[in-house]
Amino acid sequence: MVTSLKDTTTLHNGVKMPWFGFGVYKVEDGSEVIDSVKAAIKAGYKSIDTAAVYKNEEGVGQAIRECGVPREELFITSKVWNADQGYETTIEAYETSLKKLGLEYLDLYLIHWPVEGKYKDTWRALEKLYKDGRVKAIGVSNFHIHHLEDLLVDAEIKPMVNQVEYHPHLTQEALHSFCKKADIQLEAWSPLKQGELLKDEAINEIAKKYGKSAAQVILRWDLQNDVITIPKSIKEKRIIDNANIFDFTLSAEEMTRINNLNKNERVGPDPDNFDF
Predict the structure, then answer these.
(1) What Gene3D superfamilies does UniProt report for this protein, alphabetically (predicted)?
(2) Is residue 130 among the annotated active site residues?
(3) What does the DSSP assignment read for 66-119?
(4) What residue segments make up the domains of the chain, in order of their start?
(5) Fold for the domain defined by 15-195+227-237
(6) Mean pLDDT of successive 10-residue segments in the chain (276 residues)?
(7) Selected catalytic residue, list 54, 94, 119, 130
(8) pLDDT in the model for residue 180
(9) Is-contact 131 123, C-beta < 8 A?
């Protein structure tokens, strides 16, 4: 049972990754991202998730340097963007991300999207970075089962994480069960479906019972489903509230009720059909 922001899951290579983290998608570089990352770390968050394409790695790096928490106590994730995929270009993209962040290493580096004809070479680059000790763990993002199966045919190292869109309207059960069997940790982006789920009647009913918000119930549901979650906010109060989910437990019946809200509905692109 996850009982605090410090609790971790152990990835298949032995690296410990926090169950709960802070995402910075669409958070502007400069004071907005610096202040929100600092607020998250101050509130006890250890895991920060960024990406090259978010264009805020510099600000994230500055917040890490100024937050007063030793680097080794934090877990930092970034991702290689689609235009940089391929072997050499991925190695270069990693160096660029490190330079922007001002860090010596990343805890987790992900392939952002499964770019056809490219992601296998990209993965070889991640394996090289990993074998060279430049990154603690490597993984993928937005990979369907067939992408994973295809990758695993040639991979020397199995991805440690698959970060995907995951929320009560998109429970990805087949993918989740595939990842569990393969010992690949599932991680949720857009866990609140960009706020759309906060109005859901069933979720609000459960929230009322515990004196919690709809967001807190959803984030708790993620953790009880063994899915890492990384909500984002730029408001300090919301950042603190999002993490206030360790003092209640959803019943099996409530978990099922939330699972049953699934509609296989996405807010982001389908990984089988994106053009960027």
Answers:
(1) NADP-dependent oxidoreductase domain (3.20.20.100)
(2) no
(3) HSSS-GGG-EEEEEE-GGG-SHHHHHHHHHHHHHHHT-S-EEEEEE-S--TTTH
(4) 15-195+227-237
(5) TIM Barrel (3.20.20)
(6) 95 98 97 98 98 98 98 98 98 98 98 98 98 98 98 98 98 98 98 97 98 98 98 97 98 98 98 96
(7) 54
(8) 98
(9) no
